[in-house]
């Protein structure tokens, strides 16, 4: 139980799934590292500005009041994971998970500096020498440099990355900025460089509850036992059936290429991340032996047993329906989103004031938030009581792009029309677009009749 985990040396293998994995790795890493450097309207295109409480995503700016959109997005991501897992197993783990993607690039750097699988094994077993030192040093240099650049890029999503680069060169970095950059860089270095499969086996909860989303029609990587057994070595020219053997030549190449070190021939295991390296390995062996491909393949449990596989089944339909509703709700709400927010705060120190001429006055503070990225002029009005008027509002009200304006106003109504507690409504309309309008209810207090 307490035995130290043995280091796994994944063997290099080419094939269609390896090419897909490389494309996925390059694409996802490219998006991550290029994201903070993109510009949009003279600012960083993707910036989560926590001090200003604004999330800039290209032309969209989200505020704390837009938290429901984040909740919807998280729900969509969760149900997407359930949906694609029910259909295709652990596709996320094998091709898109950050742990898999960064581990892949770290393994590439290890192969570049230390060589292929057997060379790496021999290098680790050999005594220290100049050759071993320079190879290990080169690997560590690449790993640490890449990890630090990753930490720098991560912080660059929360602080303008160009300014951050200048601050680093000037040794003028804040404590929290330095902490998060080093923390994320160290996490990348440790997880992708050393922990690797241990993260997938012991730290990731997805491996533990994935079985709850699997059924006999879920697409998984399987070994065709009826075709492959019994295993055994043989010459290429020999007929395996004449010797009572299956197609598996027991070369263990599928085990050598597995990044988590499992044997797929023992059946579905929670350690399998569905990277499909074993499929590429087995197909290459089948090609050399002139056997049909597919001894290890993407399939379903029903298909392996000769039964008809079903794509449309209750859980898939339910997940798809929920996704459709959530995505539709998010798109609709975003499309109908008004780029202005109005908060009305009534002065609690004074219920009302009586002015000459039988006029009753209430005091309010209007907080206008312009969520668009350009300045806008707004017309402010009040209604709900006959003859009610606003004082202290200079038309039009100017609010800078992404700005917040606190506007003190006084609402006045005649005494004979304002008594007790009455409902009123403040409304704000953009001068350049009447469709950009928002209203907020409040209370107007007067003397008891």
Helix/strand-derived category reads alpha+beta
Distance separating the two termini: 82 Å
Helix content: 40-55%
Q: How many domain regions? A: 2
Count the DSSP helices: 15
Count of individual beta strands: 16
In oligomeric terms, what are we looking at?
Answer: single chain
- Report low-confidence residues grouped into runs of 5 or more: none
Query: Gyration radius, to the nearest Å?
Result: 32 Å
**Which percent range describes the beta-strand content?**
15-25%
Mean of pLDDT: 90
The general outline is elongated
The largest sheet, given as strand count, sense and whether it forms a barrel, is: 5 strands, antiparallel
Describe, in plain words, how this protein is organized in 3D.
- The chain is an alpha+beta fold.
- The chain contains 15 helices and 16 strands.
- The chain has helices spanning 16-34, 67-88, 91-95, 98-114, 117-125, 130-156, 161-169, 175-195, 197-203, 206-209, 225-228, 253-256, 277-288, 301-304, 314-335; strands spanning 39-40, 43-44, 46-49, 54-57, 60-62, 220-223, 296-299, 340-346, 353-355, 359-370, 376-383, 389-391, 397-399, 404-414, 421-430, 437-445.
- A hairpin with a 2-residue loop joins strand 1 and strand 2.
- The longest helix has 27 residues, at 130-156.
- The protein is elongated and about 110 Å long.
Question: What is the fold's blueprint, element by element?
Answer:
Blueprint: H1 16-34, E1 39-40, E2 43-44, E3 46-49, E4 54-57, E5 60-62, H2 67-88, H3 91-95, H4 98-114, H5 117-125, H6 130-156, H7 161-169, H8 175-195, H9 197-203, H10 206-209, E6 220-223, H11 225-228, H12 253-256, H13 277-288, E7 296-299, H14 301-304, H15 314-335, E8 340-346, E9 353-355, E10 359-370, E11 376-383, E12 389-391, E13 397-399, E14 404-414, E15 421-430, E16 437-445
Antiparallel strand pairs: 1-2, 3-4, 4-5, 6-7, 8-10, 9-10, 10-14, 11-13, 11-15, 12-14, 15-16
Helix pairs in contact: 1-4, 2-15, 4-6, 4-8, 6-7, 6-8
């Amino acid at each position: 139980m307490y035995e130290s985990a043995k280091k796994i040396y994944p063997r290099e293998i080419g094939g269609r799934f390896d090419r897909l994995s490389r494309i996925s790795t390059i694409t996802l890493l490219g998006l991550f590292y290029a994201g903070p450097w993109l510009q949009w309207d003279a600012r960083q295109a993707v910036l989560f500005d926590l001090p200003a409480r604004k999330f800039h995503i290209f032309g969209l700016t989200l505020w704390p009041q837009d938290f429901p959109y984040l909740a919807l997005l998280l729900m969509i991501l969760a149900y997407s994971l359930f949906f694609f897992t029910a259909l295709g197993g652990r596709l996320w783990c094998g091709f898109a998970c950050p742990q898999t993607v960064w581990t892949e690039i770290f393994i590439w750097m290890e192969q570049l500096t230390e060589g292929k699988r057997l060379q790496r094994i021999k290098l680790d077993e050999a005594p220290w020498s100049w050759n071993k030192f320079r190879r290990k040093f080169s690997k560590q240099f690449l790993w640490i440099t890449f990890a630090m650049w990753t930490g720098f890029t991560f912080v660059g999503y929360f602080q303008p990355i160009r300014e951050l680069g200048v601050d680093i060169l000037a040794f003028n970095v804040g404590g929290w900025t330095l902490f998060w950059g080093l923390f994320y860089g160290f996490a990348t270095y440790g997880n992708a460089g050393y922990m690797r499969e241990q993260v997938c086996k012991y730290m990731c909860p997805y491996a533990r509850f994935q079985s709850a989303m699997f059924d006999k029609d879920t697409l998984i990587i399987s070994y065709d036992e009826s075709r492959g057994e019994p295993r055994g070595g043989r010459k290429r020219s020999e007929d395996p059936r004449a010797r009572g053997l299956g197609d598996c030549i027991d070369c263990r190449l599928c085990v050598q290429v597995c990044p988590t070190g499992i044997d797929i021939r023992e059946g579905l295991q929670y350690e399998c991340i569905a990277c499909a390296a074993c499929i590429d390995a087995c197909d290459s062996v089948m090609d050399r032996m002139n056997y049909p491909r597919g001894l290890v393949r993407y399939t379903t449990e029903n298909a392996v047993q000769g039964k008809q596989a079903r794509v449309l089944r209750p859980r898939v339909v339910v997940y798809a329906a929920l996704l459709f509703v959530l995505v539709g709700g998010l798109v609709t709400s975003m499309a109908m989103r008004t780029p202005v927010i109005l908060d009305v705060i009534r002065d609690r120190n004074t219920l009302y004031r009586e002015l000459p001429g039988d006029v009753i006055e209430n005091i309010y503070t209007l907080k206008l938030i312009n969520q668009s990225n350009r300045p806008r002029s707004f017309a402010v009005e009040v209604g709900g009581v006959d003859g009610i008027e606003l004082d202290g509002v200079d038309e039009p009200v100017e609010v800078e792009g992404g700005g917040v304006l606190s506007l003190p106003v006084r609402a006045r109504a005649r005494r004979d029309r304002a008594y007790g507690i009455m409902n009123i409504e403040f409304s704000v309309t953009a001068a350049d677009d009447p469709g950009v309008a928002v209203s907020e209810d409040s209370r107007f207090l007067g003397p008891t009749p």
